[in-house]
């Protein structure tokens, strides 16, 4: 089993070859640089979210999505969504999709699936479909 130091050395080597080895670290020329970039981008995003508030941040995302859709065109946007769905399926598996579907199936225009599940005493295990931190 490789030590943490060996793993970091391998990741640094890949980063120096131009590969992104840290999510959010794109453009960093070393492992350390990618870690710093990712941290800075994360903090920047958090600050921006605080500045804009929930509704402002939601609007920012909507506008970004519209811009991306214009760039890719309808077919490209569909393909992007398909790829995202496939990635999500790999992460949460069949069990996660089943649990997520149970919650979604309970939702109505008046109440969320979470509210209906609580009212009706139906247990939903969100840990099966929530993103897991590595």
From TrEMBL:
Where are the compositionally biased (Basic and acidic residues) regions?
1-16, 32-93, 111-134
Gene Ontology cellular component list: cytosol
What InterPro entries does UniProt report for this protein, alphabetically?
LEA_5, Small_hydrophilic_seed_prot
**Domain of life, source organism:** Eukaryota
Q: Which GO terms describe its biological process?
A: response to abscisic acid
Region named Disordered? 1-134
According to UniProt, the name of this protein is Uncharacterized protein
